[in-house]
C-alpha cells in the first residue's frame, strides 16, 4: 500500500482573530464594540502551493493577510511560518522573517511612492535588509526588473511613467528583491484591465515555478483564482466557510455561499445552462454579525438550527472542509453507508 505522503506546510494559520476596537469619547475613550474583521480562521499552505482566498469585499481578506505578515497585530491565534510562531516573535527575529514573507498590494498606483525612482523602490528592501549596497544593489535591481518583464533602464524612471500593468510588475519586483519564500498577493490584478490581468497572473505563475515560491492569492471572485490556485478557501464575514482543492471546489461546491459565488461566473460554453443563485440582502455588518451561521440571513437553504448554532468547520472527506449544517462531516453516520 502506498504510504501517505506527509505534506510540508510553509504556513499554518490557527484560529486567527482580528477585532478592531470601536472607541467612543475623546478623553476617557472606552471601547464600545469591535469590528470582527477576522473571526477565527484556520488553514495551511504547503511549500510551492498557491492557496486562493476568496470572498466579497469587506469579508476580512486583507486584514487576514496583514495579520499573517504582522503588519498589524492579530487579536489572537497562531501563525506559523516554517514552524515559527509569527505573533510571538521578538522584533529582531521578525525583521529576519520579513525577508521571507512579502506582499504585493492591490493598488499599483497607491502602493508605489511617486517621488522615488523605480530603482530606489525595488532597491529599498535590499538596503533595509542589508542585502546589497552600491553597484551590487544596482546590478540586482536591473536583474529583477528584467525578471519581471521590465528593462534595466526603467530603474531611472518614476512610477507615473508606467501603465497599471507595468506598475504592478514594479510591485512584484519589489517583493521579489529579497528572495522571499512566501508572497501574499492581495488582489494583485483587481485594479487592472481584464486584458492585462492574464499577463500579470502568467508572470506570477512563471516566477513561482522559477523561484519555488508559495502564494496566498487573495481575490474577490472565484474566476480570478481559478487558474492560479491549487486549493481555494472561501471567506464570508470573517470566517472560512469552505476549503478544498480547486478542481473539487469548482466541480462540487458544498457550501451554499460558494454555490452562489460560482453561479455568478459567466459560463464560456453557451450550451451549458446555468442558473444564477441570487443572494438576498446585503452582507451584514462585521460589528454585529448574525447569530449561529453568519450566512443564515442570506442563505437560500437556511434551517432553524442555522440561526442558533455556528456550524463547525469540518473535513467532509478527502480534505474538503465545509462549515455548514447541511453538509455532514466525513466520520458521521451519513457518510458511513
Ligand atoms: P477585504 O480585504 O476582504 O475587502 P478587509 O480586511 O479590508 O476586507 O476589511 C474587513 C472589515 O474590517 C471591513 O468591515 C473593514 O471596514 C474593517 N476594517 C479594516 N481595517 C480596519 C481598521 N483599521 N479599523 C477598523 N476597521 C477596519
Ligand atoms: Mg482587501
Concise overview:
It is built from eleven helices and twelve strands. It is α/β, with parallel strands linked by helices and 337 residues long.
Distance between the termini: 24 Å
> How many H/I helices?
11
Following the backbone from N to C, one meets helices and strands in this order, namely EEEHEEHEHHHEHEHEEHHHEEH
Q: What is the radius of gyration?
A: 21 Å
How would you explain this protein's 3D organization?
It is a single chain. It contains 11 helices and 12 strands. The chain has a domain at 9-100 and 180-251: 3-Layer(aba) Sandwich (Rossmann fold). By secondary structure, the chain is α/β, with parallel strands linked by helices. Helix 3 packs parallel to helix 5 and helix 4 crosses helix 5. It has an 8-stranded mixed β-sheet with strand order 6-7-8-3-9-10-12-11, with helices on both faces. 31% of the residues lie in helices and 23% in strands. The chain starts with 8 loop residues before the first strand and ends with a helix. Residues 61-62, 187 line the site of magnesium ion.
List the defining traits of the structure above.
binds magnesium ion; 11 helices; eight-stranded mixed beta sheet; Rossmann fold; 337 residues; globular; binds adenosine-5'-diphosphate; 31% helix
Amino acid at each position: 500500500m502506498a504510504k501517505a505522503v506527509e505534506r510540508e506546510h510553509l504556513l499554518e494559520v490557527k484560529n486567527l482573530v482580528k477585532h478592531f476596537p470601536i472607541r467612543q469619547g475623546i478623553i476617557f475613550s472606552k471601547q464600545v464594540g469591535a469590528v470582527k474583521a477576522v473571526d477565527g480562521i484556520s488553514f495551511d499552505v504547503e511549500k510551492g502551493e498557491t492557496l486562493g482566498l476568496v470572498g466579497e469585499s469587506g469579508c476580512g481578506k486583507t486584514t487576514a493577510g496583514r495579520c499573517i505578515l504582522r503588519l498589524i497585530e492579530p487579536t489572537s491565534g497562531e501563525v506559523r511560518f516554517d514552524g515559527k510562531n509569527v505573533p510571538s516573535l521578538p522584533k529582531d527575529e521578525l525583521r529576519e522573517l520579513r525577508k521571507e514573507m512579502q506582499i504585493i498590494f492591490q493598488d499599483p498606483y497607491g502602493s508605489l511612492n511617486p517621488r522615488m525612482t523605480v530603482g530606489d523602490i525595488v532597491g529599498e528592501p535590499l538596503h533595509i535588509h542589508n542585502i546589497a549596497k552600491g553597484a551590487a544593489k544596482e546590478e540586482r535591481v536591473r536583474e529583477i526588473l528584467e525578471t519581471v518583464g521590465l528593462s534595466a533602464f526603467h530603474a531611472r524612471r518614476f512610477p507615473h511613467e508606467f501603465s497599471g500593468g507595468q506598475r504592478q510588475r514594479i510591485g512584484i519586483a519589489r517583493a521579489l528583491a529579497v528572495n522571499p519564500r512566501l508572497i501574499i498577493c492581495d488582489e494583485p490584478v483587481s485594479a487592472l484591465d481584464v486584458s492585462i490581468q492574464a499577463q500579470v497572473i502568467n508572470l506570477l505563475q512563471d516566477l513561482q515555478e522559477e523561484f519555488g515560491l508559495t502564494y496566498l492569492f487573495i481575490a474577490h471572485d472565484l474566476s480570478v483564482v481559478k487558474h492560479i490556485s491549487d486549493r481555494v478557501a472561501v471567506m464570508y464575514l470573517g470566517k472560512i466557510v469552505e476549503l478544498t482543492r480547486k478542481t473539487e471546489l469548482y466541480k462540487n461546491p458544498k457550501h451554499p455561499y460558494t454555490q452562489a459565488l460560482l453561479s455568478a461566473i459567466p459560463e464560456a460554453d453557451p450550451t451549458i445552462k446555468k442558473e444564477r443563485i441570487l443572494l438576498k440582502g446585503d452582507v451584514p455588518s462585521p460589528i454585529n454579525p448574525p447569530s449561529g451561521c453568519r450566512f443564515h440571513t442570506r442563505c437560500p437553504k437556511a434551517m432553524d438550527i442555522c440561526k442558533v448554532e455556528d456550524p463547525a468547520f469540518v473535513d467532509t472527506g478527502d480534505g474538503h472542509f465545509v462549515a455548514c449544517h447541511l453538509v455532514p462531516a466525513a466520520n458521521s453516520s451519513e457518510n458511513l453507508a
